[in-house]
Amino acid sequence: MHKLNINLLGWNHKDQIGPVIESVLKQTFTDFELFYMDNASQDGSVDFVREHFPQVTIIANDRNLGYAGGHNKFFQMATSELVMVLNPDVQLTPEFLSCVVAAFDDPVVGAAGGKTLKSPGSPAIIDGTGIMIDKYRRGRDRGQGEEDRGQYDRVTHVFGCTGAAAIFRRRALEEAKLLVASNRYEYFDEDFFAYWEDMDLSWRLRLQGWECRFVPEALAYHPRKAASNPGGYKHFVSFVRHHRALPLRIRRWNWRNHLFCIIKNDFGTPLLRGLPFIALRELAILGYILIFETSTLGVVPEFFRLLPKMLEKRRYILSHKKITSEGAAKWFV
């Protein structure tokens, strides 16, 4: 049995998955099995992998299960001590796996990931160095958009690990999973479908007392477009232009799911102290949507349809948490 199972999840990513698979097969750490799970692609992705990478185990779904559903299916079938989720637009450097796997020698680590850059070359622009969350409950990738000058080159605990390339301890996942029906559990929340599932799962791992570890020596490249606006909020005009260019479904999932993260997982004194800041930010987001992106409001009926289910999940999560209010307060920096 391999120590690590890796799930590369794709949906019509034939033009991207080749270099990703090659980067995995070139790892110095070799005690792994690589799976390619296809979410009912129509571009010949499955045939491409079967022809060019016969050593990869293929799982072909008959419908698109989304990010959450696809990886949940993998978690349920994996047999290894550690499991990894991998996006089809991420390429790993050869030492990535060996560096991240070593972090699990610490028994408190439930999840770990490395540093992702936008692309090779100079200047190196950071895509993320772990998920952080502040008193406004704004979840973000630490350092995103900054030039990499070594300012994050220290092994440290972070709030969470990005789902683009993260490794999890199976025991931690079992403790953080959600009971959603009689004898049916979810790891990533399948009602999210896509976006913010990594934040939500990280939050539940932390509520169970597990730590998430950032390993700077583990380097990968992730040239995603969804968070590529230079300067972020500081350059408001370009931010509006960039954000409005994103597909409508992404903007709707992004707004809906970040609210569900708070509703499901926040609690106690930290929540009470943070309410003024949370309300201020959410009013600002709503005002922005009302002025610049009214089409995003189309997700409101779906939000209220799912709200009772989210509140039920909240009751389950908080009834099983192991962390106290005092322990959670230090997360919101």
From TrEMBL:
Residues 12-175 form the Glycosyltransferase 2-like domain. Keywords: Glycosyltransferase, Membrane, Transferase, Transmembrane, Transmembrane helix. SUPFAM superfamilies: Nucleotide-diphospho-sugar transferases (SSF53448). One of its GO terms (molecular function) is glycosyltransferase activity. The keyword Disulfide bond does not apply. The keyword Membrane applies. It comes from the Bacteria. The chain crosses the membrane at residues 285-307. InterPro entries: Glyco_trans_2-like, Nucleotide-diphossugar_trans. Belongs to the glycosyltransferase 2 family. This is Glycosyltransferase 2-like domain-containing protein. It comes from Candidatus Doudnabacteria bacterium RIFCSPHIGHO2_01_FULL_50_11.
